[in-house]
Each structure stands twice: as structure tokens, then as C-alpha cells.
From TrEMBL:
<keyword id="KW-1133">Transmembrane helix</keyword>
<keyword id="KW-1003">Cell membrane</keyword>
<feature type="transmembrane region" description="Helical">
    <location>
        <begin position="181"/>
        <end position="199"/>
    </location>
</feature>
<feature type="domain" description="VTT">
    <location>
        <begin position="46"/>
        <end position="168"/>
    </location>
</feature>
<dbReference type="Pfam" id="PF09335">
    <property type="entry name" value="VTT_dom"/>
</dbReference>
<comment type="similarity">
    <text>Belongs to the DedA family.</text>
</comment>
<keyword id="KW-0812">Transmembrane</keyword>
<feature type="transmembrane region" description="Helical">
    <location>
        <begin position="58"/>
        <end position="81"/>
    </location>
</feature>
<dbReference type="InterPro" id="IPR032816">
    <property type="entry name" value="VTT_dom"/>
</dbReference>
<dbReference type="InterPro" id="IPR032818">
    <property type="entry name" value="DedA-like"/>
</dbReference>
<keyword id="KW-0472">Membrane</keyword>
<feature type="transmembrane region" description="Helical">
    <location>
        <begin position="154"/>
        <end position="175"/>
    </location>
</feature>
<feature type="transmembrane region" description="Helical">
    <location>
        <begin position="24"/>
        <end position="51"/>
    </location>
</feature>
<protein>
    <submittedName>
        <fullName>VTT domain-containing protein</fullName>
    </submittedName>
</protein>
Amino acid sequence: MILAAAAAVAPDSTQQAVGYPSLFLLVVLGALVPVVPTGALVSSAAVVAFHQSDTSPFALLIVFGVASLAAFAGDMGLYWLGQRGMRSKNGSRWLEAIRDRAPEDRLSQAQDKLQDHGVLVLVLSRLVPAGRLPVMLACLLAKLPLRRFARGNLPACLAWAVTYQLIGILGGSLFNEPWQGVALAVGLTVFISLAPTVWRRLRRVRSTAS
């Protein structure tokens, strides 16, 4: 998947024709099925785009546009599926998937923030690891209309794409070879995604020991 994202900004026109749609589809899939490392995909694509900025000056802009649009489309699709599950007597597997990835403590926090700040909390939820689905579930439980969810989700996806693209640009600027920058970008995104989980587990261990 990382290689597919890197191919999205390859200089050959044929590779571009395949690569950009591949990046789009992978990010959409990652929004629907949160096991795909979408942040790493975008950062890796940004690394390669940075190294090709001389020959493809708009590559970074295209990666940003593709990533943000794909994230928005995936989120909207998942929210729509979640709404269908909420209206159904038997729920749906999509709604259950969202519930399974939204622990009660995170959901409670998300509901409080949604009540205090409205859809603005969506922006932060996209930037906080594992924060997107608890906020989405809070919006579903609050019966937030799809259109209102979209108004908050659009800037959230733009901010998310900028953040991970900056990680890629950082990795690309530190090394001469694109693969080195990709390795750094992937490492950073994995660290960012795992750090909160590790920190919560350490806190639980400390509280149990005390």
C-alpha cells in the first residue's frame, strides 16, 4: 500500500494515471476500514512528490487534493452507513464496527466535546490518533444531519491531509533518496498512531499498581 501511494506521484504519465486513483481508493478504504494506514500513505506520497517538485511542480498539490477528497468521501460514506444502521432495528455491521472502535471513555469525552464545541470537534478528531470514530459515533448518537456533519468534516479532512503531507515533506527534505524519507515518514506516522495507546496502557498499569 505504501508503494502504491508512492507511485501516485511518479513522473511517468501512465504511472500517474494509475497512481493517483490508487491513492484515492486506498485512502477511501482506510476511512471505511480503519486498519489501512492512511496517514502513512499520504506522507509517503508527499515524500516522493517533494523529490519530484522540480519536474512535477504540482505533485504536492495534487497529493493534497487527492488525499483530502478521499478522506472526506470515505468519512461521508461511513457516516451515511452509520446513519442507516441507526435507523435500522437490527443495526448494521458498519455501525457495530464503529462502536467496537469507540471505547466508552473515549465516546463519553467525544459527546462532551461535541456538546460544548459542536462540529468543530471534528477537526481535532481527525488529528488525534483513534479520535475520529468516537467523535463520529457521538455525532450519530446525537442524530447530527449528514449535511451538518459534512460542514465540520470538510475542514477536518483538509487539516488532516496538510498535517500528514507536512510529515512527508519533512522526511523528504532530510534525505536525498526518496525511500529514506518514506521510511522516516512511515516511522513517524506509526509512532504518532501508537503513542496514545501505549500511554493509556502505561497509565492503567500505574493506577493498578498503586
